[in-house]
Amino acid sequence: MRLGEISDASLVVRRAGTAQRVIVAAPGYIERHGTPTVPADLTHHTCIVHDIGPDSDLWSFVTPGGSQTVRVSGGFLANDVRAVHLAARSGYGIAHLALVEVFDDLRNGQLIRALGDFPSPGFPVSLVYPSRRHLAPRTRLVLEFIMSEIRQIQAGLVTTPEKAPIS
Fold this sequence. Notes:
Radius of gyration: 17 Å
Low-confidence stretches: 160-167
Largest sheet: 5 strands, mixed
Strand order of the largest sheet: 7-4-8-3-9
Mean pLDDT: 88
Order of helices and strands: EEEHEEEEHEHEEH
Number of helices: 4
C-alpha cells in the first residue's frame, strides 16, 4: 500500500481511494491556546509536523478564495505518523493527519477537529505490485480483501462525520 502519487512505471498501481487530511488537537491544547478559525491562525500555534519530505511544514487548504498554503512550526518534527498522532493526543500541539488515522479519537473526544470549513486536499491511496502476470490466486484474494476493507472504511468515514467533533 502506498500513499501519494506513484511514479514508478514498473509497478501495477490499483487506486484504492483518496485519504482526507484534517487538522486536530487535544481538548487540553484547545483549552489552553484556543481554536484556530482560519488557516493563517496556525502560524500562532504550536504545530506538530509530520516529516514526509521537503515542505512538510507547508499545509494546504481549500478556502473560498482558492487554495491557501500556510508554513507552520512548533518544535516537534517526526517522520513517524504514530509519533505525530501521539503528540497531538498528548496535547503538545496541532497536527495535520489523515482522517482515517484519527477517526476513532475524534469520535471518543480524545482529539478535536479544527478548521473544518477549510478542507485539505486529499492524497491518493493505492495498492501496488510488480506484475499482473503470474499473480498467485491467494495474492489476488488478499488484494480484493484489502480493496473491500478500504471501501468499508471510506463509507464509514462518509456516513458518520457528525460523530467527529468539529470546531
